[in-house]
Design brief:
By secondary structure, this protein is of the alpha+beta class. The protein has 24 helices and 26 strands.
Amino acid sequence: MNQRFERVSDRRKARLFRPIVVMTLGGLALHVLLAVFLVFKFDKVASTREQQMVQNGLQSQLSELDAVVMPQVNWDVAVKALDHKLDPVWADTNLGDYLYTFNRFTRAFVVDGSGTPIYAAVMGKRSSLDSYRSFDAAVKSVMPRIRAAEAARPPIRPRADGTGIVTQPIQANAIARIDGQIFLVIATLVQPDTGRILPRGPRAPVAITATPVDAVMLKAFAGRYMVDDLRLNDARTSDERRAYVDLYDPEGKPIGVLGWTPRRPGLMLVRQLWLPALLAIALMALIAWIVMRSGAAIFSELVASEARAKHLAFHDPLTRLPNRALLFERLHPMLARFDADHSGVAVICVDLDRFKDVNDTLGHHAGDLLIETVANRLRAVCQDAAVIARLGGDEFVVLLDRADRAAAGAMAQRILAEVRKPVDSEYGRLQVACSVGVALIEQPGIEPSEALRWADLALYRSKDSGRTRVTFFEPAMDAALRSRRSLEADLRQALGDETLSMVYQPQVDRSGAVVAVEALVRWTHPERGNVPPGVFVPLAEECGLILALGELVLRRVFEETAGWNRVRIAINVSAVQLRSPGFAALVTRLVARAGVDPARYEIELTETALLGDDPVTAGNVEALKRLGFSIALDDFGTGYSSLSVLQRFSVDKIKIDRSFVAALGGNDESEALVDAMVKLARALNLSVIAEGVETEGQRDRLVMCGCREFQGHLIGHPMPVDKIAVLIGEEQVRAAAALKRPA
């Protein structure tokens, strides 16, 4: 009987579970087939898109190269230098050397209207015209497009106002195999931009530039478009795992292929997930049993996890101090419960001085260690505080409840003294200090955000006043901040309207003859009057306007002094400009547009601008030197200059800072320092000039030290361009320039 029952039970189990098993296995099989199909389709679509991306990327590369070459030959000066009479030096600077240095064009040629080469440069150096022969066939294949567009171009007529571009670029590009190597070839018609200088004949010269498709270009291309193992081959291989894009010359002949290993996201996903998927199926039953058995434990863990999450939401993970959210939660009721016994709430902002230097020099681990140490010190010294919080970075906030000015000041001074103690660590002894701002809230109705803003304003005043000090908030600070923001808005408006002006201060030699002038920017505000450069230049650096200000200064100086030829002109350039990747190219364009000789101009740099190993700074200085500019080191002796800096950047002149000049006569040490600077300059074959010369006595002592050039109020005050032109004998040039200037 029992055996019969067991057989019936087994049949019922089979009837119950057989369909479930069949459905499960069928479902799994269907999912596997669907997954294989989707993986195949996914990989195929991804490979197709990569091919399209590479093809489009190659065309984008050609278009970008077109845009690089066009400004060099699509302007009046290029017509004069390449069409009217070939100027090889100009071609070297603006085609051969420039395009090789900044854009890796290893070949640069110019052919005249008949197709005959008249200039050739290889690897940035002028070369024999024979180097053009191998490129002749490729050039002839694209030249018909250039000449057809040139013939269809309307007559060039300069605009009545003398401004604006009067021609559209005429370019053609191609991919060609030359001497066994594949090049991207760009042909650009030489045209005027404003039309002041017109081509001599119906066919203008054409600039031919070429860059090789080599390992450097392929690496950059692969990185830009995220292509793996990109290589250039002569033909396709039999490897089905590779993807290809064919390269054709202008006549449609195959000249090579770009091959790479396409990414197979679907297959990669399968390889990564097949074992976890099998394990997941095997563990499903076990997980269900474990979940039922450990339900209570999971619930307890969820409660504990919620508590941890709440703690993390209101505390800083590094220091375990309250964060901004908890600070505001605690500060709000403190500001709301003013009574007869409640004297006030003190909000104390603490910010480490030069904390960024620790991160930059020793790394973020050292910075974290320093933050933790400061947090522990605040816990020790601020035991009476209601809240000690970290807002982020290196800024902390301490709240004192029922505090008056004396208690808040005493607490701030204790913080200042405790934080400034050296920190002994695995990185050595770290010297740390802080600045403190205090806002004492003694009346109800103040919002927490406003109270914190007041403390921040006091903190910023401590920073501006020299750091490592305590400052209490005063209402005037808020007005000062608003005034600064208003001044920033006015400066933006002034830069947009170009209402800033230039003045020039003379520099003389021992005989009193003016040998140079320094260009200085001035701002006359319609309401504030004359705003000193010491105010608006640092403001421009802080609010990101220094690049626009620097460009305005360079353009104005080049325009106003374009016809001068008797004196040098010194122009100040900030460290921010020098670290800008496009600065040298900007100066090149401005020089070309104004038609000035860079050899007559001197770029003045501060010592801090040349510190470090920034490759952008070094590249910009090198490019400026190649253009012909001389380099002067301003405020010499006040920073961290070294002989290696003077030699590395090929400095031409040092400028003795006015602080040393002002100290002359006060003690022998100052005169010895100046004498040492002059001797150092002579030993390095550098020119030297002293600035800030105010008295005859200072000038006489400088002469005794061997100084030969002088600048200062004793020599002459800064003056407008018209007056300085009269002083140096350039007034006729200024008058001629004014007559030529369009109305």
